[in-house]
Design a protein that fits this description.
The chain has 459 residues and is mostly helical. The chain has 18 helices and four strands. A four-stranded parallel beta sheet has the order 2-1-3-4, sandwiched between helices. The longest helix is centred in the N-terminal third of the chain and has 44 residues.
């Protein structure tokens, strides 16, 4: 079930994340030229509406369609999405997420149906007119049939969100957001759910707190600081580096393993997240666009001009609350992480000595290694960091001729011989690239498996 939820969440966020640059461009234009912005300009502010109502939904639809059926899927997804865009007065991000992939699926089925049945010389004619005819029909169907449905869904979401906002219960969303983040659903929550809601709110009031519900680096900072002072073994020694990567680099995945080592720390991040949201709402804080990555630097760049004091205060308070709650948990209820790693290493060596899991042993997989992939949920955060660490270790060991890449766990290239990923993503990595040796880690910065891999490659 967890794997299926991760895959679905990854699919949703996968339509938004490749287009984050466009969202940031729109957010900067909004922050600068809106009537309440830094440089109010009525002429340039005319960009804001068309970009949010047309450009961004079309990019989402194209990306979603491309994932399903390549370039043809992207094109027909954008065509069909024009139906919901024209048929509604609000930005159709949810409509784009539905119609884009659905239209691509339709053209994919058509292509399968006519495969090897087109006479030579008529391929271009059939390809172009099939997209044109089917796309036109789907755009009309989307405008007349899907738009009312999406409007109803939007109404339900507005009612639900309004209930939390009007009753001062928005901090309670941390009960769901923080545990889901630790299960590597952070990108799905932020870009698949909260960002569309936030963009709609920006259209109305020029800023949105929804962009901060998941992206706030405060709770994770509190956890890592607690490990700096009261952690044990490798967890304590790696925590200072993780603080920098998390808070300034914006890679939140770096602190997830620290919580997984002691799940009671979920109480700390939930309380920290709720405290931050409470401050944000009380001080009317909001961002003008999604913050990606969730770095304090990126958040400050996307902040609405009147939100800086409340924003910094909310981040600091959420970090302090998380730290205070995490300290007794670590001090009295934590285990020695270095001992656990040694035990895991011992068990691994014992299995290899007995010939268990021979399919994934060094002798059978490591004979001709030319490509290693570090995989994470989105392929841009912790995987990029892990790939950099591996490259440096390989270079220091004098090992050349091996390409190290970072990639989404759901689309690992087939020519990879070794895949390194977090243990929570192990099942998805195994399905994505079953022929590769799978190395599961729990600590992105100081995983002992890095050095073990280098030693194996030396041999």
């Amino acid at each position: 079930m967890k794997e299926k939820v991760q895959v679905f969440g990854r699919f949703l966020s996968g339509m938004v994340m490749p287009n984050i640059g466009a969202f940031i461009a729109w957010g900067l234009i909004t922050a600068l030229f809106l009537a309440t912005g830094w440089c109010p300009n009525e002429t340039l502010a005319q960009l804001i509406g068309p970009m949010s109502s047309m450009l961004l939904p079309l990019l989402i639809a194209y990306t979603g369609g491309q994932v399903v059926a390549g370039q043809r899927g992207g094109v027909i997804g954008a065509i069909a999405t024009m139906g919901v865009i024209v048929g509604s007065d609000v930005p159709m991000f949810i409509g784009a997420m539905i119609v884009g992939p659905a239209a691509a699926w339709v053209i994919k089925q058509f292509d399968r149906l006519v495969q090897n049945k087109i006479k030579a010389g008529f391929e271009m004619l059939v390809n172009n007119f099939s997209i044109g005819i089917i796309g036109a029909a789907l755009a009309a169907a989307a405008m007349l049939g899907v738009t009312p449905l999406v409007n109803v869904l939007n109404g339900w979401m507005e009612a639900g969100v309004g209930f939390f906002v009007n009753h001062g219960l928005l901090p309670l969303t941390s009960l769901f957001i923080e545990p889901a983040k630790v299960l590597f659903l952070n990108n799905a929550i932020n870009h698949g759910i909260l960002s569309p809601m936030g963009i709609k709110q920006v259209e109305e009031v020029g800023k949105s707190v929804f962009f901060l519900l998941e992206a706030n680096p405060g709770p994770g900072l509190g956890i890592l600081l607690a490990y700096c002072f009261f952690g044990k073994g490798t967890a304590k020694s790696s925590a200072p580096g993780a603080v920098i990567i998390h808070f300034f680099g914006g890679i939140h995945e770096i602190y997830f393993p620290y919580i997984l080592m002691n799940p009671l720390l979920l109480l700390a991040v939930i309380a920290g997240g709720a405290s931050g949201i409470f401050v944000f709402t009380m001080m009317n804080v909001g961002l003008t666009a999604p913050s990606s990555p969730g770095s304090i630097l990126a958040i400050l760049m996307m902040a609405e001009r009147h939100s800086y004091v409340g924003l910094i205060l909310g981040v600091l308070i959420s970090a302090a609350v998380s730290l205070v709650i995490a300290i007794p948990i670590l001090k009295f209820m934590s285990k020695d992480a270095s001992l656990e790693e040694a035990q895991a290493k011992k068990d691994s060596m014992k299995r290899q000595a007995k010939g268990i899991d021979a399919k994934n042993t060094t002798e059978t997989v490591m004979e001709k290694v030319s490509k290693i992939a570090f995989a994470c949920d989105a392929g841009m955060g912790s995987s990029a960091m892990g790939a950099t660490v591996l490259k440096k270790k390989l270079a220091a060991a004098g090992i050349t001729g091996i390409e190290v890449i970072h990639t989404p766990v759901s689309s690992i290239p087939g020519d990879v011989q070794v895949v390194v990923t977090h243990q929570e993503l192990g099942e998805r990595a195994a399905h994505s690239c079953p022929q590769a040796k799978l190395i599961l880690i729990t600590n992105f910065l100081a995983a002992p498996q890095y050095d073990e891999l280098v030693e194996e490659l030396k041999k």
